[in-house]
Structures are given as structure tokens and as C-alpha cells.
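Quick one, C-alpha cells below:
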């Protein structure tokens, strides 16, 4: 169920490019069914975006770490794109390197994206204060309409006792 929207266009025909930022997690992929449905309804292009970023450790090769992160991101998006293309959707993949919110905002602005559809982890309190919220930064930093999908928490595992 959608959590929050901002700046929605008044004419549905304006949904031509739907940007879906993904980080490789199941939480981020919660936004995909919503974006897919929108793409089908509006015959829009889906742009799957992953922002690669690594923290360097002393003695590590930053170029190799960056290259590996980009290669892994490309492979992940390609797997998704193949599945979605098989469903008849027009899909484009993009890997950018840097800070997630900044790269999402920049890509949306540079490529005339119609709407950004992304999941939010739903952190609150100290977790949000310490980690920040990529979704919130995108929402506040872009002129593009944003549809945020709240990721449902995973159900608690029930262990049976003997």
C-alpha cells in the first residue's frame, strides 16, 4: 500500500518514465509490483537504478572495489530486467556510483523521469537519526513526484518447542 506521494501530475499521460531505485534488498523490491502496475497502465518505461558504493579499508584497492560493486549491481539489475522484459515491459537499467539519495535525485533530473517509485524501510527514532532516510532525502531533494511504498516488516519466526 502506498505510504506517501508528492507532486503527482494532473494528467496520467505524464507517466512516461518510472524510476525504481533498488539496493538489492527484498525491502527495496517491495516497490517493484507498484511500479510494474503503473508501467502497464501507462505504457511507461521502467528504469531500474542501483547506486553502487563501497567503504574502503586501509590497504584495499579502491578501483577494484568500485569495479566489483558496479559489476555486481549490473548483474543484479540485468536479472530483474530480463524477467520484466519477458512480461512485455520496456525496461532500462542504470548503475551509478556514489551516495544513494544524491544519485537518485540527479538521475531523475538528468533523464526527465516522470515519477520515482521506491520503498522505505520505515525506520524511526534512533535508527532513522543514525542512518538517515534515503527515501526522505529523495522526497525533499527532488522536483519529481515520488511514490513511497512502506516495506512491511518480516513476520516473526515461530519456533516450535519439543
Amino acid at each position: 500500500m502506498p505510504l506517501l506521494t508528492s507532486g503527482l501530475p494532473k494528467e496520467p499521460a505524464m507517466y512516461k518514465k518510472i524510476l525504481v531505485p533498488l539496493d538489492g534488498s527484498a525491502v527495496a523490491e517491495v516497490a517493484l509490483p507498484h511500479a510494474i502496475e503503473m508501467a502497464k497502465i501507462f505504457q511507461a518505461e521502467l528504469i531500474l537504478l542501483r547506486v553502487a558504493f563501497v567503504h574502503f579499508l586501509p590497504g584495499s584497492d579502491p578501483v577494484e572495489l568500485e569495479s566489483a560493486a558496479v559489476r555486481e549491481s549490473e548483474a543484479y539489475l540485468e536479472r530483474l530486467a530480463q524477467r520484466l522484459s519477458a512480461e512485455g515491459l520496456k525496461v532500462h537499467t542504470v548503475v551509478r556510483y556514489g551516495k544513494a539519495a544524491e544519485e537518485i535525485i540527479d538521475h531523475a533530473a538528468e533523464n526527465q523521469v516522470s515519477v520515482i517509485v521506491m520503498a522505505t524501510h520505515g525506520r524511526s527514532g534512533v535508527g532513522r537519526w543514525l542512518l538517515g532516510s534515503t527515501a526522505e532525502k529523495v522526497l525533499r531533494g527532488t522536483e519529481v513526484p515520488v511514490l513511497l511504498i512502506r516495506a512491511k516488516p518480516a513476520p516473526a519466526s515461530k519456533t516450535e518447542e519439543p
